[in-house]
Amino acid sequence: MRLATTTNLREEALAAGLKPFDTVLTINGQPYTSRSMLLGQIRSTSPGDTMSITYRRGADAAIRSTSIRLAAVQYRKRSPLENAINVVVPVLPFFCLLLGMWVVFARPRNLNAWLILGVLGYFNALIINPTLITGPYLLVVALIWNIVAQSAMPICLMFFGVYFPERSQLDIKLPWVKWFIAIPLMLLTSTDFIANYGDMWSFASISWIAPYIFDINIAENILSALAISWFFFNLGPKIGQATGDARRRLRILYFGASIGLTPFFLVLLYCLYKRTDFGQGIPEWVNIAVFFILLLFPLSLAYVVVVQRAMDLRIIIRQGTRYAFARESLTMIRVALAIWMAFSLNDFFRHPDHQRNDIIRIFLIIGVFFAFRFLLSNRLQKMIDQRFFREAYSTEQLLSELSDEARNFTEVTPLLETITRRLGSTLHIDRIAVFLRSGDTYHLELATGMPMVAGAAQIFSLPAASTTITTLSRAKAPANVYRDDPSSWLIDATDAERNALNDLSTELLVPLPGRTRLAGVIALGPKSSQEPYSKTDRQLLQTIASQTGLALENAELFENLTTEVTHRERISRELEIAREVQERLFPQTCPKVSGVDLAGFCRPAQVVGGDYYDFFLLPSTSADEAPLALALGDISGKGISASLVMASLRASLRSIAGLRQGDLGTLISRVNDMVYESSTASRYATFFYAEYDPVNHLLTYVNAGHNPPYVLRGAETIALEATGTVVGLLAHSEYSQATLQLHPGDVLLAFTDGISEAMNHSDEEWGEDNMLASARHLLSRPDCTTTADQLLTCIFDAADKFTDGAPQHDDMTLLVCTIGRTHA
């Protein structure tokens, strides 16, 4: 009814004789003054009761009366689809309202979010009939909400089209149009409050406006249609002007609004033409279809405002279509089979007189359901994923393989090239940049899709203390780069960081974790499809990043090890050369001296050593046989440094000894000064030097702090004690010489402490006594001519037998000189 005039009559009223546009005067003898009076009368009666009505047909017709028998509501059996519709249709408006509230909650500072709430609140008012609500206060709230929501929707939608994502050029040129539409709509809203109040509680109070209510409704509908049209007029040109993400958002909004609102707008025009309320006179299935299609509009509104990066419209359509016709089809089949099995079981148990075929049929139905649910469903799901979602399926497979493959690389450059190439081809990314840690800065190591200009590694760099690195280190997960989001972490970044990320077109940063800190960062540009990075993409990228970070550290460790091995090989080669050089410094042949047999050997503890022995002939001052020079020294320390001092000592000795000036004390003093000047304060040498006159058999020597050599003469042992301090420690040191007359059969043993102090595994020293005993044991053998080489070999063998393979801690050097001895 519209006020007291009938409009849409049920079968009971038509059977009682009422016709459209009759004016009702009384109901059950009471004046019909408001809709609340009618609702009260209906609620106070029971099914089967009669309701007496007086009415007038036409302006001057006589008053008529009739009785309407109220029929009980017949609950007919509904199909599962009808039951689903009856459940879903009342729920969806509340879903839209909650969706609008969620958008506001997600973007409370965004004006567009509040405009969307104003739009989405309309659907709740469109479905819910306030007159069905009991309770005076709830009824008032419902009526106010209904009026405000229906009036706000076109206004909010129009302003959204004007200002999203930025003000349209059309509104800048014609700013008055939106106010020309919005102000009359807001003014007419006040008449809606008056008309609804009078209709519900007092027809008399609005008698003055009653003739104009229908025209006001038409005006409101026209203005609403203009507001919606102005929304499209402002939105359309923006699509061609916008670029990037803004363009994708506008395209989604434009097509979502067009598809969602077009059926609704056509129904509205039809109702205006028929002069009926919205939805009246239209089949129910059409209204339901229009309503479901209309949901595309609020969903697109919420999507373009809430998401940080919008997908391309073609991607949404393709994925949505595939999802609806592929994956969800299995769910629908499962539900259909479950419903079929439930109805079959219900029918089976309601009729106990079963035939054999009935039993077979029910077991087959149950078997089909469980077979599909637990055997076929998962296999079909996998087939569907491969057939309809081949790209996503292939992406997941390829990225998983890449994650495993990354661990096998031992070089940085091939690893990064493989990672960027596979990511680019799999996810369709043109621009990828990789930053690697170098000290306290992350420099650009590799970039695809852009030229690597000179100095790019310095231009595109991120300090370890930058906002980008600290954010990734703290989150330990991929981070989106949203440049237009005031709540994004990028707001706190420096201009240099933002410029670097902008120049690289970065949309996602993936950290490469190390053991203690980030090993690097992968900066991914936009996909070719403009599709945002999905949750699955981020998870797979994080897995790849973890393996890549480990591979980078392994590659770095491998590189360090390779460098270390190369360095060690170079040092070993240099040491080998030094050893060869040092060996050339030792006597290569024994000088020929009558009645003298010589032997010497040095076994360094390391590759090169600091021990020194030498024997050489001195220039003769007469026609007699040339004197023989014998030398043995022990440089402090071991290794290269000691060998250098040894070479210096040898060169100094040979150059000075060849001059034959002064006694041996003066000679060693000059050698001391030369070694002192050419070596550090910590380097010195114990040194023994002797000259043997083969004519007079006289041994003249200087012992500069060395272990006293021994002369073995039968059972007698003669020690050649020190005659001065060590060489090279003090400047201008003085030395004295001593002499010893040698006899045939004498044996001179000069040695370093590496021989006498050789230790076994129990850290016990061999000692000089054992050394001398081994030499005497060989010398005491009858019927044998003992040579210097034999003595040297005998002593070394005895020392090695004692040490029994224990590590050699010091250089071992021995010089043996025998004087004309033949043992019979």
From TrEMBL:
Organism: Tunturiibacter lichenicola
EC number(s) given by UniProt: 3.1.3.3
InterPro entries xrefs: Bact_Sigma-Reg, GAF, GAF-like_dom_sf, PDZ_sf, PPM-type-like_dom_sf, PPM-type_phosphatase-like_dom
GO MF, one annotated term: phosphatase activity
Domain PPM-type phosphatase: 593-819
Keyword Transmembrane found: yes
Keywords from the UniProt entry: Hydrolase, Membrane, Transmembrane, Transmembrane helix
Location of the GAF domain: 411-562
Stored Pfam families: GAF_3, SpoIIE
Source taxon at top rank: Bacteria
Top-rank EC class of the record's enzyme: hydrolase
SUPFAM superfamilies named in the record: GAF domain-like, PDZ domain-like, PP2C-like
Residues passing through the membrane, by range: 84-106, 113-133, 139-164, 176-197, 209-232, 252-273, 285-305, 325-343, 359-376
Name used for this protein in its record: Sigma-B regulation protein RsbU (Phosphoserine phosphatase)
